[in-house]
Amino acid sequence: MNSKPMQKVRWGIIGCGDVTEVKSGPAFKKIANSELVAVMRRDAAKAQDYAQRHGVKKWYASAQDLINDPEVDAVYIATPPDSHADYTVQAAAAGKPVYVEKPMALNYTQCQEMIAACDKHQVPLFVAYYRRCLPSFLKVKELVDSGAIGEVRLVNLRLYHAPQKDMNPDQLPWRVQPEIAGGGLFFDLAPHQLDYLDFLFGPIAAVTGQTTNQAGLYPAEDLVTAQFTFQNGVLGTGTWCFTVAPEQITDVMEIVGSQGRITFPCFGQAPVRLENAAGAQEFHLPPPAHVQQPFIQTIVDELTGKGTCPSTGTSAARTAWVMDQIVSR
Description:
With 329 residues, the chain is α/β, with parallel strands linked by helices. It folds into two domains: 141 residues, NAD(P)-binding Rossmann-like Domain (Rossmann fold), CATH 3.40.50; 152 residues, Dihydrodipicolinate Reductase, domain 2 (2-Layer Sandwich). The chain is built from eleven helices and 14 strands. The strands form two sheets. It has an eight-stranded mixed beta sheet, with helices on one face. Strands 3-2-1-4-5-6 form a six-stranded parallel beta sheet, sandwiched between helices. A hairpin with a 2-residue loop joins strand 13 and strand 14. The radius of gyration is 20 Å and the shape is globular. It starts with 8 loop residues before the first strand and ends with a helix. The model has no long low-confidence stretch (mean pLDDT 97).
């Protein structure tokens, strides 16, 4: 990889949509040695509006124009997954480090193409699995690593959502269009859970799954189940259903050990709960105002030679491989 550290990272965003309004965009300006200098959206008026509201001096309607801007040192790709691979290849060819939203791409094959392009041009590739840097998830890792629940035996994931009301089959959200998202809400949400488990326990070595569409609200799967085995011997199961009643909405990650268990949400604000021989403890560790800020800090640290980012194209591609195995492709 490009070994010369930057003094300051000047960022350009491709796709300044909803995710960049609060979760990520403002963080680029709040981190030391980081600056947001350009944004792009195909709708030039929306790009200009974003730039003016966020104090960004340049806006573009063309991704290639942003990538070619000599004042842009690194590129953040915040578009839907169907364009991640193409924009990553273009940014890498321009010699610019890439930070891409999750899921990394439509499938594992595209992830491999992205990694190869970045390797060829000697630029780093980072993927937005930012839970690896959030306080509550770091607390879970600390509890696991310290032996608070003994030896880890198994993991259970349960994520149940109610369907969006009045979904129009002629105007479906892109997140349930497989040609844009890679699949349905499973591809949008489950990668965060699976990547975090990779962070805790290392790679998944074997996985099987089942998918179906029970409600017929959109073309993508709406119910997924999976069984998986980590290289370290821990076993796991997951169930993702997106057509339950509002009263049945569930968001629980459970880690069971030889001497206790830890339960916590992946997306909600419930506390981390530890149960062992000492009793039950709860840890309330809310996320920062801009949830990607601690993670983006690690990217800036790596690019300026002061640290290492915990989520790379290589680690993120493992999660893409797991997802492909679950849906049998």
